[in-house]
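User: tokens in, sequence out, please.
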């Protein structure tokens, strides 16, 4: 998965295209009003065909707005407006507009195409615009070309349009660069705010949010979920005998084991110190106990080591399902009580007990 496919990027992209759509709606409205206005001006100067042609462009702009209002398709909205504006500007440069001022509208194009498309597509469209202008300027005899422009005008037109295009390209490129850097920074902060630095798992704040989301989902849909509160056994001894760095290494290795056991939809978090919490969506008590038991036996089997020394790591855990509680606080309290009873019963075990656990944990180390 690339960083551009993460939820954060997708949300930012969605916000940006929603903004572009809004601007396009206002631009379309402004275009309609402008076309009405300059059409009326042409009419008052007795340029009837020109007035009708300008008013004729109102139809596709209005149709594009209506299409978007019904289907909310932003790509069609963008393409529709770009195509209409392209034809309008081609008409203006070919007809000369009022007093040969039609080509002046071309200056709207560079900022508009870079705003609506990306740098590559924008540049391609601008090259097409140049091609249209060159054809109109070089072949005044063509049937659709009614205007003739002086050499001086053509030269200055291309020079100024080129200058404007390059300027818009550079501005857009630096805007995109700044926007991506800002987005990266925001995502890094967002990730840091949700992640435990040592283990890379979710932190307490993140899992509390997810628990409350899962609880709301349960209230809406009735989908059960469970939690597993895990504590590494006699962890103080690990720190005391092998050093704090060995303890840290064991916590990291434990996080890797947890992630290899849980499903992708489950969430593992460092609850604090040497305590961890699992959130298991769509899981009732028995499957949650089975998963906790599998994790316990994986941890007991895993070879935890630090700088060549083996670390004796086992876990105890308390499990609770939403069917046994009426709130998140209550679930956490019950899981904590079960964890306490697992410790009391000799550690390296899961509570509440299921029959199959008894055989597995007969040889569990005592406190
Ligand atoms: N290395 C390391 N140790 C930690 C970290 N967080 C908490 N601890 C240690 O974990 C130990 C927890 O010890 P206790 O709460 O006494 O419990 P325990 O020794 O695990 O005994 P039981 O829970 O009864 O099995 C303490 O010594 C903490 O200093 C950490 O991030 N790194």
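Assistant: Sequence out:
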């Amino acid at each position: 998965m690339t960083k551009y496919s993460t939820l954060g990027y997708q949300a930012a992209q969605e916000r940006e295209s929603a903004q572009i759509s809004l601007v396009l709606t206002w631009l379309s409205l402004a275009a309609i009003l402008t076309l009405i206005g300059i059409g009326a001006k042409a009419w008052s100067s007795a340029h009837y065909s020109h007035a009708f042609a300008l008013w004729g462009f109102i139809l596709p702009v209005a149709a594009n707005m209506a299409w978007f209002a019904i289907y909310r398709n932003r790509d069609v909205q963008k393409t529709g407006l770009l195509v209409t504006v392209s034809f309008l500007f081609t008409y203006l440069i070919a007809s000369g507009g009022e007093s040969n001022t039609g080509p002046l509208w071309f200056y709207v194009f560079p900022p508009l195409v870079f705003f609506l498309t990306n740098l590559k597509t924008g540049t391609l469209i601008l090259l097409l615009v140049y091609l249209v202008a060159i054809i109109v300027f070089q072949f005044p005899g063509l049937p659709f070309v009614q205007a003739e422009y002086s050499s001086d005008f053509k030269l200055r037109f291309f020079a100024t349009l080129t200058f404007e295009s390059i300027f818009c390209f550079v501005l857009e490129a630096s805007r995109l660069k700044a926007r991506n850097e800002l987005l990266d920074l925001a995502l890094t902060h967002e990730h840091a705010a949700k992640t435990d630095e040592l283990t890379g798992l979710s932190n307490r704040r993140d899992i509390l949010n997810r628990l409350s989301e899962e609880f709301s989902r349960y209230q809406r849909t009735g989908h059960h979920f469970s939690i597993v509160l895990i504590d590494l056994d006699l962890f103080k001894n690990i720190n005391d005998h092998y050093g704090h760095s060995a303890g840290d290494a064991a916590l990291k290795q434990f996080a890797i084991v947890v992630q290899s056991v849980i499903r992708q939809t489950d969430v593992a978090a460092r609850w604090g110190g040497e305590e961890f919490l699992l959130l298991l969506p769509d899981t009732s008590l028995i499957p949650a106990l089975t998963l906790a038991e599998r994790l316990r036996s994986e941890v007991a089997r895993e070879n935890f080591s630090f700088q060549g020394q083996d670390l004796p790591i086992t876990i105890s855990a308390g499990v609770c399902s939403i069917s046994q509680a009426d709130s998140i606080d209550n679930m956490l309290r019950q899981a904590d009580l079960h964890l306490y009873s697992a410790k009391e019963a000799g550690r390296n075990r899961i509570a509440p007990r299921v029959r199959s656990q008894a055989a597995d944990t007969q040889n569990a180390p005592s406190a």
